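Morning!

This is the sequence you dropped in the shared folder:
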Amino acid sequence: MNHICDEEELHSARIKAALSAMPSDGKIAEMGARFKTISEPSRLKILLALSVGELCVDHIVEAVGGNQSAVSHQLKTLKDNKIVKCRREGKKVLYSVSDGHIMMMIELAKEHLNCNE
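The structure's back. Tokens below.
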């Protein structure tokens, strides 16, 4: 009988731990939106280009290919999702990553590409 009680306690403890690790539904939705935003290949390329530091649209276009209009559209999406920020310097607008955690996730994903596990 003790064995059943121990299993029930363990089961209950695991459920309690899982529930305490679970963010609110709003936070989960926010996480999902960020993953969705960075998972689009052209936006991911832009973020990889920005990993070296601030770039203007012309430099980003050169680094990722495509055209200025498409890159500007993707930058707007990234900015709307608070993943990149921009600042004006004279006539140029310089873009940079505003959320370093996003870049940590991307770097981890890059490392995982070489993982043979």
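Headline: The mean pLDDT is 91.

More detail when I'm at my desk.
O.
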